[in-house]
Amino acid sequence: MLDFDKLDFNDKKTYHLLGMGLTKGVFQLEEHLGERYAQIVKPQTIQDIADIVSIIRPGCKEAFHVDGETTMLDAYCKIRNKQMSEAYLHEDLRRTLGPTHSVLIYQEQIIEICRFIAGMSLKEGDMVRKAMGKKLPEEMAKWEDRFVTGCTDSGYEEEMARKLWDWIDKASGYLFNKSHAIAYATTAFKTAYAKCHYPTQFYTAMLKYADKKTDTYDEMQQLVNDAKLFAIAVIPPVIKEANSDFKILNKNTISFGIRYLKGVGASSMESIARIKGAKDWIEFLILTDRFKVDKTSCEAMIKAGVLDEYNMPRTQMLAEYELFRHLTKIEQAIVLSLISGRLHPSILIDIDKADFEQKRVVTKYAKWHTTGIFDICGKYGPIAGLPLPDNAREWLYDFEHAIYALSDCKIANSRRVEKLNGLMEEYRSKSFGINKGLHQAWEKFYFGIPLTSHDKGLVVDHDTLPLIEVINLPPNNNVKVAGIIENVGYTKIKRGDSKGKTMAFIDLADNTYILKGLIAFSDCYEKFGEHIMRGVAVSILGRKMQDGNSIIVNSVKRL
């Protein structure tokens, strides 16, 4: 069992995971900015994580470094990656700002500057911090005079002192509390450690927590997709388990929780749990009726693949379920006896409620069309089987012929026979083949994402890279991928030579992964925009991004 109090906070695998930008589910870092800047910064310590947590806060994108041109966020990243040198208004500031590469990030750094540069007490430094946060003009003027005087008394030039005050004053609006940042970073590391070393347990826990998110199904989709990077498959639930919540089946497989299917709520789980012993499709039909499993839940389980272990096409199960629901209890008893070759014990409860004549007809008719000797739960004693008619055997285990046989039964009057024939005509008009596209659509509706493997009908060249492998591709490498466009986002460029033009962000899916955020800049979108639409199968040539796990699109070809 994982003991969070005994973690190795120098674990290289965990920091490598963060540096890869695989931050889905990692506290404070799972959104786009956290993913991107974890990949840029490549943290190696808890302090590094704390810095990332702090610099991705909104204000850091507006505040500037001492050069007045580079934002604090960009300055930190560029200095960290040796693309820019550290810059200090005075070398003595290195003592306070050195750990954050000359960038002012934390509120506590204001207090230290007041103390070591302006010669103020800790209490005065904290009062300066509070005054800057409240932006009260009179208070600010008072403390500015005290700060400048303290700096000059300590031997610093007044011009430098006023520049330093202006700089920390402008930055104070976004500075983060370091003690909070370290606490957040520690929790971030713990979640990243769990994801790295206990991925199956991590994803199971995160999926269970998804219903606390604003968009539960979008969150589940992201987690199911991310789990593929760790060779973990999230599969539809199976009826024999009837697991209400997400459940670990083995180290590479998680079963989806039935109660998360759209249309199946917690209130349905008690009755669903009572039918998990159904050994086959016929017994499932019997038990759903016996324990009053509602129509919406049954249809959801059929369409979502919960009953795939019965080895019948989902479309056929759906059609037979619909037909079965339209039968009376006595008609159901006859049909089930004809298919199974015996009267099922649970059906006899319904037969017991019928009158004597109905019991006689059911038992006589079932006896005539089934083989050998069957015992009706010992209630009526053994009944000797009669020789079968020549065509009776073809009716056994055949749902369609069993329904047609009802027209010969004396229970059904002429009007009812006409109704049954109409139901059968509708039933026979349906196709019962395995339709992967339909399965995919059903699963996406009920789970938020297709769970079973589909090839999506793509025919691709040998040099096309599976989308899941793009993650490990080195930056700036050329790449060819193919898939179905899952979603497209558009934005207007607000500045520069392309101002007013449209660029697109593409989510692309193949049978391995959904790669989000492929970027088609305005020139690319102008050339290939007619192909960049949701639901279109495309082949894309592009380049792996320098910062991020996606692709800059160069060309798009419709497949």
Describe the structure.
Among the domains are: 7-178, no CATH class; 467-558, Beta Barrel (OB fold (Dihydrolipoamide Acetyltransferase, E2P)), CATH 2.40.50.140. The model is unreliable at 342-359 and 367-397 (pLDDT under 50). It is elongated, with a radius of gyration of 34 Å. A hairpin with a 6-residue loop joins β4 and β5 (382-383). A five-stranded antiparallel beta sheet has the order 8-7-6-9-10. Strands 1-3-2 form a three-stranded mixed beta sheet, covered by helices on one side. A two-stranded antiparallel sheet has the order 4-5. The chain is an alpha+beta fold. It starts with 11 loop residues before the first helix and ends with a strand. α2 packs across α3 (46-55), α6 (107-116) packs across α7 and α17 (329-340) runs parallel beside α19. It has helices spanning 12-19, 32-41, 46-55, 72-80, 94-97, 107-116, 122-134, 137-153, 158-171, 178-197, 199-209, 216-227, 269-273, 281-290, 295-304, 314-325, 329-340, 345-352, 356-368, 399-405, 414-428, 436-447, 522-528; strands at 233-235, 247-250, 253-255, 374-375, 382-383, 478-492, 502-509, 514-520, 537-544, 551-558.
